[in-house]
UniProtKB/TrEMBL annotation:
It comes from Paracoccus amoyensis. This is AzlC family ABC transporter permease. InterPro entries: Brnchd-chn_aa_trnsp_permease. The keyword Translocase does not apply. It is found in: Cell membrane. It comes from the Bacteria. The lineage of its organism: Bacteria, Pseudomonadati, Pseudomonadota, Alphaproteobacteria, Rhodobacterales. It is a multi-pass membrane protein.
């Protein structure tokens, strides 16, 4: 557990500004402190929280807000599938808290650790995941509260929004190890830019599946080329 906590520390450099920014943005969107904290504690998914708050502030229909937030979090389904070989034998209770605390950072740290040390026992894998979750999720909630309560005291020239792109670059870049990964990333980026003009952030609903399909196609093509004639 301690190992997971220690390796999570670098992420706090961006997690804390990210949480502060969400607290500020959510309050500016008209939420009260209980709603903001309920959002961060129950949803616990920064990207989809920002998406939902932005759409709410634009008076977007509730169904579009929900669909857009779910689309942003579709990657969690892929994360879950890739963890099955490592945590599939866990009990239902263990899977429940893993599912709750699975965010980009805890997933990336854990899957890389599991692949590096494949002989770890299930208990050791769960302990590592728990350490990462405690070190990352707790500060996210605290930072959200600070942003919501002290937002007015944060100088306007403090560019907290730098944390959003840096967080995802830091997580995604080390994961782009195969042609399929690169294809999925490239297609998703291009599609997101092409469809950025769609209303209510619907471009994400188009870009995400296009990226996944591109990655799957390249993966199948690569596997076929590897097979002997």
């Amino acid at each position: 557990m301690v190992h997971g906590m220690v390796q999570s520390i670098p992420f706090l450099i961006v997690i804390i500004p990210f949480g502060l920014l969400f607290g500020v943005v959510a309050m500016e969107a008209g939420m009260d402190i209980l709603q903001v904290m309920g959002f961060s504690i129950l949803v616990l998914a920064g990207a989809s929280q920002f998406t939902a708050v932005q759409l709410i502030s634009e008076n977007t229909p509730a169904i579009i807000v929900v669909i857009s937030a779910l689309a942003v979090n579709l990657r969690m389904a892929m994360y879950s599938a890739s963890l099955v070989p490592w945590l599939g034998e866990a009990s239902n209770r263990q899977k429940a808290w893993v599912a709750y605390s699975m965010i980009d950072q805890t997933y990336v740290l854990s899957i890389q650790h599991y692949e590096k040390y494949p002989r770890l026992t299930l208990t050791q894998r769960l302990a590592y995941f728990a350490g990462a979750a405690i070190a990352v999720c707790g500060p996210w909630m605290i930072a959200t509260w600070l942003g919501a309560t002290l937002g007015n005291a944060i100088p306007d020239d403090m560019a907290l929004d730098f944390a959003v792109p840096i967080t995802f670059i830091a997580m995604i870049a080390p994961m782009l190890r195969t042609p399929a990964h690169l294809a999925a990333c490239f297609v998703a980026i291009v599609a997101a830019l092409l469809f950025a003009g769609m209303p209510s952030g619907l471009g994400l609903l188009v870009a995400a599946p296009l990226g996944m399909m591109a990655g799957a196609y390249v993966e199948v093509w690569t596997e076929k080329r590897r097979k002997p004639a």
